[in-house]
DNA sequence: GCCGTTTTCGGCCCGACTGTTTTCAGTCG
């Protein structure tokens, strides 16, 4: 059983315990352990075999034994008994906003409700409103929650949430009563998938700001509105929360509402260790709960708050409690990749396969962005659904690209178009022979038709990495966010093979993919693997994906030196030759 | 269930909002 599977079971145990009304800290212990297992950068079997499980922070005696049982036998008696004791429909009930373990228990005991359907029926019959702790309003809200859940996804892609956030941020920037404003939550942390949109503002007149916020054109319903906070629903079902604080409180609120939750727990803990108290209103010289301005340690921005807690500044993207504290204690966090570091783009399509730009339009676009190079990597013939090129068409395309480059050179332009391919990784070989691949400047190899078998997929990817003409592996897990899980593959082994052969791995910047996942990059970097940031651009507007991808790359701790397409043209040429000479 | 230069027991981050209540429980983030 691999890390992801073990983590999923531990998380599920946490949820089941929550439903049982167990001690919430016990629930949290399971969720913490799941996270700890997930972020392990060595094989779980190895840690178990060497008896090092309980050296991991958050895993004690009991969890050590349970994880060992899972890894060695593939089963866990405790989990199976727990699961059998709870009707499966209850987990779904927990997803209805407004329902937690206590109310679910009441619904179950008084009305025998154990599923969303049963709840809906009871609400419609008016039975729920009669229960203690419930009322007409709660009943109506539950019904609405059920309907909304049916109609809209509860999770949204980063790109959708940014599009919704931008007009709201613009409204805040323009508002006469707003002093400072900022995105917050998982949006500011650039998570690939987001639950709801969090915004923060400072003002002397919060009531007015909140009032005007709830009247924005995109708002379809006001869920809550108080003196400091409002929640609304936007078109498309996305929930947006705005919190308004005094300007003095802004940096503290920014830290608090940016999260993550786990990151904040450590921050508060650090404050307590120093005899201080941290909340969204400030950092106070007090052990007691307080908002007393006389005890406030004033900070003008987030960096000063971190400094007070003995830390260098931690960029929002890294605030996941996945190693940022250890790093920020030791010294400054390295400068992470920025959009302006990119010198070119290496994974792109044209009208020759399934793209919507011609070669000429591609050149125009890339030059208008000030890029120094751009690789054309159309699909290979087996991707017939994408109008993949056969060897003859690819050779034609290479000639066309060489002609364009000749013309650019004659014009004295400082721009280069690379001839490349996104070659399919087939069952037993690549879609093009080595002699054809050797004619290309850049080769990225992708698995588009995976097997339903981890060993098989791993083998295919490793074989592709071992080919001396393959520069990079494209979107190495094939996941489509909110649509399709990654295909089964042993990524640790693939990363190992890429490290050995000097093969780069793509961080595909298509917002549906963001593949390879940011969580795997720190381990890959430690092994010496480098990254290609690929927009996988099929249309003109897809170049914007590069910018989004930079946000994800930052979550993976990628620095400019780790990313191939930050290299200036002459160095890129050398880097492209290296593997062919080495193997 | 985890954890410990204040602790091996008693903590574990903590405040806002809603709705059902007449002072607060439950949920949420």
Automatic annotation (TrEMBL):
GO terms of molecular function: class I DNA-(apurinic or apyrimidinic site) endonuclease activity; DNA binding; DNA-directed DNA polymerase activity; exonuclease activity; phosphoric ester hydrolase activity; zinc ion binding
Catalytic reactions on record: 2'-deoxyribonucleotide-(2'-deoxyribose 5'-phosphate)-2'-deoxyribonucleotide-DNA = a 3'-end 2'-deoxyribonucleotide-(2,3-dehydro-2,3-deoxyribose 5'-phosphate)-DNA + a 5'-end 5'-phospho-2'-deoxyribonucleoside-DNA + H(+); DNA(n) + a 2'-deoxyribonucleoside 5'-triphosphate = DNA(n+1) + diphosphate; a 5'-end 2'-deoxyribose-2'-deoxyribonucleotide-DNA = (2E,4S)-4-hydroxypenten-2-al-5-phosphate + a 5'-end 5'-phospho-2'-deoxyribonucleoside-DNA + H(+)
InterPro entries: DNA-dir_DNA_pol_X, DNA_pol_lamdba_lyase_dom_sf, DNA_Pol_thumb_sf, DNA_pol_X_beta-like, HHH_MUS81, Hlx-hairpin-Hlx_DNA-bd_motif, NT_sf, PHP_dom
Enzyme Commission number(s) of this protein: 2.7.7.7, 4.2.99.18
Keyword terms of this UniProt record: DNA damage, DNA repair, DNA replication, DNA synthesis, DNA-directed DNA polymerase, Exonuclease, Hydrolase, Methylation, Nuclease, Nucleotidyltransferase, Sodium, Transferase, Ubl conjugation
Domain Helix-hairpin-helix DNA-binding motif class: 51-70, 91-110, 126-145
Pfam family, one: HHH_8
GO biological process: DNA repair
Residue ranges occupied by any DNA-directed DNA polymerase X domain in the UniProt entry: 1-320
Signal peptide start-end: none
GO CC terms, sorted: cytosol
Segments forming domain Polymerase/histidinol phosphatase N-terminal: 344-427
Cofactor entry: Mg(2+)
Subcellular compartments: Cytoplasm
Function: Repair polymerase that plays a key role in base-excision repair. During this process, the damaged base is excised by specific DNA glycosylases, the DNA backbone is nicked at the abasic site by an apurinic/apyrimidic (AP) endonuclease, and POLB removes 5'-deoxyribose-phosphate from the preincised AP site acting as a 5'-deoxyribose-phosphate lyase (5'-dRP lyase); through its DNA polymerase activity, it adds one nucleotide to the 3' end of the arising single-nucleotide gap.
Protein name: DNA polymerase beta
Organism: Limisphaera ngatamarikiensis
Organism ancestry: Bacteria, Pseudomonadati, Verrucomicrobiota, Verrucomicrobiia, Limisphaerales
């Amino acid at each position: 059983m691999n890390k992801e599977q073990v983590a999923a079971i531990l998380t599920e145990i946490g949820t089941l315990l929550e439903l049982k009304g167990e001690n919430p800290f016990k629930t949290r212990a399971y969720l913490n352990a799941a996270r700890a297992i997930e972020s392990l950068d060595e094989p779980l079997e190895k840690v178990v075999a060497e008896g090092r499980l309980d050296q991991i922070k958050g895993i004690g005696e009991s969890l050590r034994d349970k994880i060992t049982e899972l890894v060695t036998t593939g089963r866990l008696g405790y989990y199976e008994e727990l699961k059998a004791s709870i009707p499966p429909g209850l987990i779904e009930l927990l997803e209805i906003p407004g329902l937690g373990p206590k109310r679910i228990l009441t619904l179950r005991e008084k009305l025998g409700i154990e599923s969303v359907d049963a709840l809906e029926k009871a609400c419609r019959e008016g039975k729920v409103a009669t229960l203690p702790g419930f009322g007409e309003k709660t009943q109506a809200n539950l019904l609405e929650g059920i309907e909304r859940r049916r109609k809209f996804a509860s999770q949204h892609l980063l790109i959708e949430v940014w599009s919704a956030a931008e007009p709201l941020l613009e409204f805040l920037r323009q508002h006469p009563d707003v002093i400072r404003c900022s995105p917050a939550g998982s949006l500011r942390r650039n998570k690939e998938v987001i639950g709801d949109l969090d915004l923060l503002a400072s003002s002397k007149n919060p009531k007015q700001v909140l009032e005007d916020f709830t009247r924005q054109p995109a708002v379809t319903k006001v869920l809550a509105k108080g003196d400091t906070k409002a929640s609304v629903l936007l078109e498309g079902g996305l929930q947006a929360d705005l919190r308004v604080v005094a300007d003095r409180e802004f940096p503290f609120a920014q830290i608090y509402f940016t999260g993550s939750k786990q990151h904040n727990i450590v921050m508060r803990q650090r404050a307590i260790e120093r005899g201080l108290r941290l909340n969204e209103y400030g950092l106070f010289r007090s052990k007691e709960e307080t908002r007393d301005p006389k005890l406030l340690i004033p900070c003008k921005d987030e960096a000063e708050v971190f400094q007070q807690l003995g830390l260098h500044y931690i960029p929002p993207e890294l605030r996941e409690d996945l190693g940022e504290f250890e790093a920020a204690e030791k010294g400054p966090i390295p400068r992470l990749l920025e959009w302006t570091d990119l010198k070119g783009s290496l994974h792109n399509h044209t009208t020759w396969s399934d793209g919507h730009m011609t070669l000429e339009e591609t050149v125009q676009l890339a030059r208008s962005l000030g890029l120094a190079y751009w690789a054309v990597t159309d699909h290979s013939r087996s991707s017939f659904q994408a109008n993949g090129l056969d060897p003859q068409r690819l050779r034609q395309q290479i000639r066309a690209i060489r002609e364009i480059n000749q013309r650019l050179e004659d014009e004295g332009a400082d721009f280069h178009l690379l001839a490349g391919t996104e070659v399919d990784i087939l069952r037993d070989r690549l879609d093009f022979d080595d002699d054809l691949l050797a004619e290309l400047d850049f080769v990225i190899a992708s698995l588009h038709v995976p097997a339903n078998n981890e060993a098989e997929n791993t083998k295919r990817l490793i074989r592709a990495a071992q080919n001396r003409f393959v520069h990079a592996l494209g979107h190495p897990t094939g996941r489509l966010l909110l649509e399709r899980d990654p295909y089964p593959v042993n990524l640790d082994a693939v990363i190992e093979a890429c490290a050995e052969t000097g093969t780069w791995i793509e961080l595909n910047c298509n917002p549906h993919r963001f593949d390879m996942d940011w969580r795997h990059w720190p381990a890959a970097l430690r092994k010496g693997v480098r990254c290609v940031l690929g927009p996988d651009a099929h249309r003109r507007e897809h170049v914007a994906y590069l910018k989004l991808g930079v946000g994800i790359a930052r979550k993976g701790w990628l620095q400019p030196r780790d990313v191939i397409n930050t290299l200036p043209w002459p160095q890129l040429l050398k880097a492209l030759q290296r593997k062919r000479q080495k193997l």
